[in-house]
Structures are given as C-alpha cells and as structure tokens.
Amino acid sequence: ERRDAYERIRHELTNAPVLIFPDFELQFKLYIDAAFSQGLGAALHQRQIVDGEPRERVICYISRQLEDSEAWYGATQTECLCLVWALEKLHYYLEGAVFEVYTDCTALKSLLNMKTTNRHMLRWQIAIQEYRGNMTIIYKEGKSHTNADGLSRWPLDNVKSNPAYDPEVAAKIPIHFMEIDRRRNFRFSEWAPGSGTLDSGNTDSEGTETPILGISSSELHNEFFSAVLKSYAKHKQCGILLQLLQQTYRSPELESQLEEPWLRAYKDKKFFLVDGLLYHREKHTSALTVVDRDHISLILQEFHDFPYMGHMSEYRTRERVASTAWWPKWEQELSEYINTCERCQKANRKHGKKYGLLQHIEEPKHPWETINMDWFKGLVPGGKENYNVCLIIADRFSKSMRCLPCHKENTTIDTALLFCNNIISTCGVLKIIISDRDPKFTSEFWTNLYDMLGTKLAFSTAYHPQTDGLAERMIQTMEDILRRFCAYGMEYKDHEGYTHDWVTLLPAVQLAYNT
C-alpha cells in the first residue's frame, strides 16, 4: 500500500500538469539544495499561464548522491558544488537565458565575487562566470525550500534494488583494488557502493579468478615468478639491490658497486621487495623487475604479438608493459622492437600521399631540343625601355643561354611574342620546355600556343626548384657577373668612357658565358 502511494506521487510529480515544457521566452527559476554528506538536488521551474492564470510549474528534477571525496566538504562548499553541478546538467536550458537561483545558503549570494583561497571554490567561480549578468542568486529560508530539499535527502545506494538505479553512474568509476597473494598472482577485486566490504578472496561475481596482464595466457604463472626469482642470482646488480633492501642500515660499500640506472633508482627509493621479488615503482604504478633476456623477449612478444594484444602501437603497448615489467632502458628497447616488427611493417596503413615514380628528365640529342627557362628578377630599371626583369633561357644540350630583357608588367601574350621572335625564329620549334609554375607559363594562351607547335610543356614540382635547376644556376652565374660591373650603381663606364647599364652589358655577358 505504501509502495503504491509512493509510485502514484512520483507519477503525478513527473507528468502533466505538474510537469510542463519550457518556454524560452520566459524567465527560469532554479531551486538547489545540498544535504551534508548525503546528496545534491535541483529543480528547474518556470511561471507560465495555466488555465488562464500565471502558475509556477516544474520543467525537470535532477539529483545525485555525493561521492566519497565530496562527503567531507563543508556546507558552503557543498552548496556551491550543487550549483555548479546543476548549471552543468541544465546548460541546454540556461545558457543565454535570464534566470534566478534559489538557495538556503546565504554565503552563495556572493559566490561570483567571493574572495577565497579554497581551490575548489576558485575553480567553481571560474566555471560559472559565463552566467554572470544573467544569473541572480536569491536566498530562501530553509523551511520553505522544500522542493529541492526533498531531492537531496536520504540517498539510497545506486544498486538494482533502488527504484532510481542508474547503470551509467554505476559503471562510471569502478574502484579496483590490486592484491598480491602468497602465490604472487596479481588479481583485481572490484568494489562498488552498496556491495559491502571488500572480499579478500580475489574472486569476481561468478567465483572465478580475475588475473591481470598475463604472460603466455591471461595469467602470471607461478613458474614465471619462480624463474624471475632465480634469474636474480645470476645478475650482479639485482643481487646487490636485494642485499641493500633486506638490510636495515645503509651500506655505502654495497651502494658504490651499483651502476646506473640502478644506483639512481635506488637512491630515489623506487625499488621494493614483495615475497623476495624486486619491484620498481614509477609514479602510481609498480612493475616487476626482470633482467633475463629470455624473460624480456617473452614479455615483448606477449604484450605486442599475442592476439589479445593486437600488434598495437608503441604508445598502447608501453602503457601495458609499464604496469607489469621493468628493466633498464625498456622504453627504448620496446620502441625498437615495435618499429622493427615485420607484421606491423607489412600491415600498417599508409596515411600519407602515395609516392610517385621518379621521373627522369630525358636528355636531348641535339641543340635546342629541350630548354630550361626562368625569370631573373630584382633588377633595377635599365636601358632605354627601362627593363626591370630578364628572361633566361638555357639549352640543356649545349648549356648555352639566351638573355631577353623585358618588363615585369608584361602580359602572357607579350612574353609569348618575345619568346617566339627571339628563340623560335632563330632556333626552331622546341620539343620540351621546362619552367617553374609562373602564371605566365601556365596560362591557357601559352598552353594552346605550344599545342599548335607540338611542344611539350614540363612544369617543375611545386616548392621544388631543383627541377628547373639549370636555369636557376645560370641566373646565379649571371647575377655574379653583373654584380662585378653594376653593384655600385646602375651604370658602368668602360675604359673608353662609354656608359653601360646591365641591359647594354647583356650581349657581352652572354657571349662570355657561351664561349
């Protein structure tokens, strides 16, 4: 009977007319409350017109149990946590909206401007700054603050017998305890709220053992631990460490016999003993120390090559090995092992662009069959026409060159006419022209012109000037020669008193280079 009454009340509270859809044109009201060491509760309300009268109705309820770490918060901290949690859960209603927050904690009214050294409060202040200007916090006396107060009270354990059981929360953060029994088997025992005390039997819900990160199967066998223990006797550094850790006093003589990295790890107190086995501690994990090459090879194979390990990446494999085994320079050795894994090299997917075949430039058999051409830029205006660039054309067969002064402002048609009048008219129709990707060389007019002449245009690879290297090298040579004459001015006077600039010097320079 009481159960039926409870179910009926819950049904009425979570359905119309008590529950309504939100109207985003109206103001929201958020009621929050936190019960010390118990839970958090919040209800989002809105005043709407119902049956011709303005009435406050509920849009949604939210609540949750406090976690163990939160149960020790003070009253103000818990109320602040409740506000931040409610804003995060209901952000799709409240972001950009004007709303009021009702709480029975007066200190919360000054939260946005509160001066505190508490790291939790400071972090929460930053988290809710986006609501500044839209959110008004109002104090409401506790005895009249019943709607949210009921949501935060008497939380039940999140187990299946709870009507409000949430499987997502139950699976969110399982707590694992690792134990080492006398047989030196690593096992996980799992505990969740409401499951009672931790069982010392190292079994799961079905009564079967749950080993972690196994060797040869999914289990660290006794034989493996025994073999590791025997291998210590053959290893000098491990033998010294075992003596040092078993002694209750320091032994400088033994410490002086330790080598790196064993000595540094020992001084940092990273080694400890469990049942005679040597373990290495690194931050929050501890791993069994192995020194025998056969054991190391076995671990590398099992943690990378074994089907259950899936030939995973270096990062994934390193995480697995780090919590199980340690030996000097193990990360470097693991990286080398994975990078040289034959199956990985054959099966890994190539994510970059496919490599093209090497295209060799066909060497010409006659002069002026294949040429390279490029622009010599950065020149000062010279000559009667005030030329400011020079088109360098190099024959790949004879390595001779032609220099054609022109203007940087020349169009594609001007460049084509210059080329035809000075090169084609004297050297004939060319087979191949190699150039960079200058717009004047790649234009449709230039392409159509050489389609009619039967000449192939070969453009250099983007950002790879070596393709047009012959022209590039000739430009450097031209620059060096002209610098000797024109570096200190745009004009040069010869021994007879004649004045020259770089344009009038071009024929002489061209002759000097070609002969």
From TrEMBL:
Cited PROSITE patterns: INTEGRASE
GO cellular component annotations of the record: nucleus
Secretion signal, residue range per the UniProt entry: none
Keyword annotations: Endonuclease, Hydrolase, Nuclease, Nucleotidyltransferase, RNA-binding, RNA-directed DNA polymerase, Transferase
Domain called Integrase catalytic: residue spans: 363-515
InterPro entries per record: DNA/RNA_pol_sf (IPR043502), Integrase_cat-core (IPR001584), Integrase_H2C2 (IPR041588), Retrovirus_Pol_polyprotein (IPR050951), RNaseH-like_sf (IPR012337), RNaseH_sf (IPR036397), RT_RNaseH (IPR041373)
Pfam families: Integrase_H2C2, RT_RNaseH
Record GO biological process: DNA integration
Molecular function as annotated in GO: endonuclease activity; hydrolase activity; RNA binding; RNA-directed DNA polymerase activity
Name under which the protein is recorded: Integrase catalytic domain-containing protein
